[in-house]
Amino acid sequence: MTNSFKKIAATSIVAALLVSSLAYASLAALKFDAKNSNVSITIKQMNVPISAKFTKLNAVIDYNPSAPDTAKAGVEIEIASFDLGDPDYNKEVLKKEWFNAAQFPKASFVSTSMKSAANGTLTATGKLTIKGKTVDVSFPVSIKKEGSNQVFDGVLPIKRLTFNIGEGDWKDTSMVADEVVIKFHVVAAQ
Length: 190
Description:
Lipid/polyisoprenoid-bd_YceI; TTHA0802/YceI-like_sf; eight-stranded antiparallel barrel; Lipocalin; 11 strands; disordered N terminus; signal; Lipid/polyisoprenoid-binding YceI-like domain-containing protein
């Protein structure tokens, strides 16, 4: 090899490393704000809406507003943090027939793709895992900037029986409806 070829090759390698490190930096994970983020659900018991929340969650979000289709997200929820507002009810839903928190202590969502949609939203597609069962889901996510934060909001309707939440006598949907609406509000700083 000639010296000029070696210089060109070395310059090309350095340029490629610089470009790849800049690309990686643009996809650096945002800093999750647990204090201002939340995940809640709404169910109907005997046709009366009941809301509950999960008080412990973690999220990892790679998001660049100038390249939204490259976004990635992962959310993990501690099932034992489920709060219906009553300690006795909270203990009940952690049992085997409902969440079986002893065997399945966490629920998660991991994105497989994000696609730009209308009005600054994304369509998030990924794997939702609850009680050991993983299902492909897709739902809209709105994104807005608040100061130095990015705020991600969305609603994901699911069927509880798909995830075996409510086994035995609790499979009867006349007492507790099959439909569950998951709402999330995730705040992350750049």
